[in-house]
Design goal:
It is built from 5 helices and 7 strands; from the N terminus they run βααβββββαβαα. It has a single domain, classed as RNA-binding S4 domain (Structural Genomics Hypothetical 15.5 Kd Protein In mrcA-pckA Intergenic Region, Chain A). A hairpin with a 2-residue loop joins strand 5 (49-54) and strand 6. A 5-stranded antiparallel sheet has the order 3-2-5-6-7. By secondary structure, it is α+β, with helices and mostly antiparallel strands. Helix 1 (6-12) crosses helix 2 (19-27).
């Protein structure tokens, strides 16, 4: 096997859970082969460089093996080698996300039942004064 479709390879390498998701990602421009946007039927070869964006995470990998069937995770990891700068950037991004405050953390504690009743009373008073 010298060539494999890029969508099949992404699925076999376990970047995407289904082949349909891999196809949609390629069509959406989230995957580039050797720096060029491609279609799902594009063939990949050993030695090709792939840029894969999944959500906010970007992978830059070199193809080391080919497979058109999905296998165990260990076999899938052997199909590619992530570039060191890509791995470093990805790990840095994961660390920043862990250290960031979750959305809504600055809003304070959840209102109690008493607080909610006070808010409702204020809203009712505002409606009456209009």
């Amino acid at each position: 096997m010298d060539l494999v479709r890029v969508d099949k390879w992404l699925w076999a390498a376990r970047f995407y859970k289904t082949r349909a998701l891999a196809t949609d990602a390629v069509l959406g421009g989230h995957v580039q082969v050797n720096g060029v946007r491609v279609k799902p039927a594009k063939d990949v070869r050993v030695g090709d460089a792939l840029q894969i964006r999944i959500g906010t995470i970007e992978w830059v990998v070199d193809v080391r093996g080919l497979a058109d069937r999905r296998g165990p995770a260990g076999v899938a990891r052997a199909l590619y080698e992530e570039r060191p700068d890509s791995k470093e950037a990805r790990e840095r991004q994961v660390m920043q996300r862990r250290l960031a405050k979750p959305i809504g953390a600055d809003l304070g504690a959840r209102p109690t039942k008493q607080d909610r009743r006070r808010l409702d009373a204020l809203r009712r008073a505002q409606r009456r004064s209009r």
